[in-house]
């Protein structure tokens, strides 16, 4: 472990909670620890690696690129979570790349074999791992449905609704803070930054959205909800 | 168990192989067994069920519908596999519907609680379950990339390539038999039946595809491979 790696670093990893502190410290010693600068790549889609990466500090983004170089992002992974678990479990190539966001990230890489032993030795860890995979698969299924049935405009509406639901409420309004970056929204719903800019400006003109210095305000959450449900169908 | 349910029916389920025959028979007795006719629905997207469904005989299809009624299919599940495991594991609503194909299906439904106990009590079963979820997640990730970066024509090419790779070889050719139904391809790559018909007829005109009475022949697999790789990019 490098000098700046917290000895109890893995205590922050949700998946490893069921382990004893001693067992977690033993796992920490099996890890290769490294700090990554913002935008630095920690997992290369095309590299022949199979480690799992525990995100001890910071945030990372799972992403891929189209042949034309457009970014398609899959998920942002927060401190306390992990990434790269598929290749560590099944030994197959990486499905995407992972880069550090914001302030960078402190990562503990555990090789595939000890990760597999860890997961199978503890039923609670195994179940937590399965729930994590189910959660990712549900997200992917929703995205496939959106890509298959909604146009780019409506996918931006749907993403805005997801952000709004995670934000704080003020009466009928929902506050999204900080203001999301257009290119991030574009990469999450597989469209261009220009489309995102146009859809947000249309919503602002229609009075559904308000841009404050530090936040984006959805002025009537239920109206946005109806807009999305109308196109998506649903129960 | 109904009279026509084979006593050793669950012996065919790959996931349950690590269990002893006695343990499998005990699980079989906890199941609700039912035979479904072709096209009959065994899991309803909008119903409040959480059982896992073991496919003992026949084949089933996981699918959903757009607001406009277009079918989006996720995967076909063969005898020996299972379906509906996400809701059984995480207790959340169904992500799609499941219908019986071909000759119908014999299904053993196991309630969520005993399924969870089963999966966590046996490390090999837990690992097999994780590998299955990883495999589905990889398929979903590929599909998101295709939907995000390829037009409908190229998605049909990519699906044809997948079918050809699973088929038998004859020199440079690959034999796809039986002939796939246009609407099935359409539902798998999220396009219309008309687009599939047009793309296949274009390929036939260009001499890349040949329609025989009982099979579809990709006459030059490496040429189709290049066609797909050119658009998709890749390593």
UniProtKB/TrEMBL annotation, chains A, B:
InterPro entries: cNMP-bd_dom, cNMP-bd_dom_sf, Env_Response_Regulators, HTH_CRP, RmlC-like_jellyroll, WH-like_DNA-bd_sf, WH_DNA-bd_sf. One of its GO terms (cellular component) is cytosol. It comes from Azospirillum lipoferum. It comes from the Bacteria. Gene3D superfamilies: Jelly Rolls (2.60.120.10), Winged helix-like DNA-binding domain superfamily/Winged helix DNA-binding domain (1.10.10.10). This is Crp/Fnr family transcriptional regulator. Residues 15-136 form the Cyclic nucleotide-binding domain. SUPFAM superfamilies: cAMP-binding domain-like, Winged helix' DNA-binding domain. The keyword DNA-binding applies. GO terms for molecular function: DNA binding; DNA-binding transcription factor activity. Keywords: DNA-binding, Transcription, Transcription regulation. It holds the Pfam family cNMP_binding. The keyword Zinc does not apply. Residues 150-222 form the HTH crp-type domain.
